[in-house]
Structures are given as C-alpha cells and as structure tokens.
C-alpha cells in the first residue's frame, strides 16, 4: 500500500496488473482542493464509514494520454470544464484490499497505477455538479466540498492514504496561496 514511483511500479506490474489511472487535485483560488463524498462501494474500491471522501480520479482509456484523461475524468465526475494545468506527479500506485465479491470490472486488477495532476479551478462553484450522469458514467459522489490538501489523506480509505500523502507533498506549493 505504499506510494511508489516509476521503477517500483514497473517491478510490481511484472507480478500483477495495475489499472492505469489519473488523479486530480483541483485547487480553488484559496488553495483548497475539491473532494467528493463516495456514497457507495465500487467493487474492490470499498467505502468505509468516516473515510469516504476522495479527490476525483478515473481510468485512462486504451490509447488515451493521461493529459487527455485528466480533463475527461474531471468533467465526468464533477462537471468542471474550467481548469488550468499546474503540475503532475510521477506514477504512483496502490493495491486494492482483498475483494471476494461478485465479478467486477476492477476485480482482476491488483490496484491502480496513477499519475496525479494539479489543476487550478478557473470557473465558479455553480459549475460543480457531481450528481449528473456524463458519458454514460453513473455518479460516484453525492456531495462535494473544498478541503485543505494536508487534511485529505485523513479522509480517505487506508489503502489510498500513502498515495494521498505523496500527492500532498508534491503539490503543497499550490496549496500555499494567500
């Protein structure tokens, strides 16, 4: 469950498949990040009471570049179209907890290999709507809020925590806004 960089992820990928994924730290003008409240489990991506918040993230389609996927996923999960690129991390990964449920699209993956992007939100809060269905994708969040980046790792499920701590370290300069 440790965050790992490119070399470590390559070694892990030799033994099990990781799903390619992008994560999004969307910063507002005050340096807070957008987080969504997950209201249901999605296969191996479980939700635990009190640890049911996360930043938007999603899979990279076949032959899709991460820089394209990040904009698509941000729109699908939040409705946001107005954001500017600030930076990105190296590849990070996390493992799913054991999953014994019914067949699920994520069930054959060991976890996710993610590239995280920092974006500055340039729209208005009225643009944010996580409850709409976009591109045929059902909503993942039933609520949203702006949160301090250094607090988000305490709000996510434990198997994502190491990645969130690395994202907070990598993107802290974008949160330090007056």
Automatic annotation (TrEMBL):
Residues 17-169 form the Nudix hydrolase domain. Its cofactor is a divalent metal cation; Mg(2+); Mn(2+). Pfam families: NUDIX. GO terms for biological process: nucleoside phosphate metabolic process; ribose phosphate metabolic process. A motif (Nudix box) lies at residues 58-79. Keywords: Hydrolase. It comes from the Bacteria. The keyword Hydrolase applies. InterPro entries: Nudix_hydrolase, NUDIX_hydrolase-like_dom_sf, NUDIX_hydrolase_CS, NUDIX_hydrolase_dom, RppH. Its EC number is 3.6.1.-. One of its GO terms (molecular function) is bis(5'-adenosyl)-pentaphosphatase activity. The keyword Lipoprotein does not apply. Belongs to the Nudix hydrolase family. RppH subfamily. Accelerates the degradation of transcripts by removing pyrophosphate from the 5'-end of triphosphorylated RNA, leading to a more labile monophosphorylated state that can stimulate subsequent ribonuclease cleavage. This is RNA pyrophosphohydrolase. The lineage of its organism: Bacteria, Pseudomonadati, Pseudomonadota, Alphaproteobacteria, Hyphomicrobiales.
């Amino acid at each position: 469950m440790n965050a790992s960089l490119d070399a470590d992820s390559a070694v892990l990928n030799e033994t099990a498949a990781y799903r390619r994924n992008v994560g999004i730290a969307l910063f507002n003008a005050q340096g807070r990040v957008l987080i969504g409240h997950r209201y249901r489990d999605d296969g191996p991506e479980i939700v635990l009471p009190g640890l049911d918040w996360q930043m938007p993230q999603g899979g990279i389609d076949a032959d899709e570049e991460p820089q394209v996927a990040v904009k698509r996923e941000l729109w699908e999960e939040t409705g946001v179209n107005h954001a500017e690129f600030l930076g990105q991390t190296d590849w990070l990964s996390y493992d799913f907890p054991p999953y014994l449920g019914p067949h699920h699209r994520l069930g054959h993956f060991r976890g996710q290999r993610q590239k995280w992007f920092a974006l500055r939100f340039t729209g208005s809060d009225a643009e944010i709507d996580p409850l709409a269905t976009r591109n045929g994708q059902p909503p993942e969040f039933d609520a949203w809020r702006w949160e301090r980046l250094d607090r988000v790792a305490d709000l996510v499920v434990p198997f994502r925590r190491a990645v969130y701590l690395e994202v907070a370290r990598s993107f802290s300069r974008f949160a330090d806004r007056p």
